[in-house]
Amino acid sequence: MSDITFTLEETGSKGRYVAHIAGQDDVGEMTFSRLSPTRIIVDHTGVPESLKGQGVGSALARHIVAEARENGFTIVPLCPFLKAQADRHPEWSDVIEGLKAKA
Fold first, then answer.
1. What pTM value is reported for the model?
2. φ and ψ at residue 74, rounded to 5 degrees
3. What angle do CA 49, 54, 59 make, to 5 degrees?
């Protein structure tokens, strides 16, 4: 996987995390709507063809989980990609709503 950096763009109740890979013009994104200071809905993950296979989507998922833990919010995973990633990571149940921790 390439080195990926992230930026947060937020206006009002809408926002997105943007994934940048050095030397690439295209970016990946994970968009969300803020329900409250402690709850967001992730509704979309987008990775252009030029970045596919470089781990951008999964890096975005890991990044938003880390952000949720650090900043004290939970995530409603409406995005099918994030939901699928969360299902593979029961250890994210502390910040992903509706995810059952593995016994």
1. 0.93
2. -110, 160
3. 110
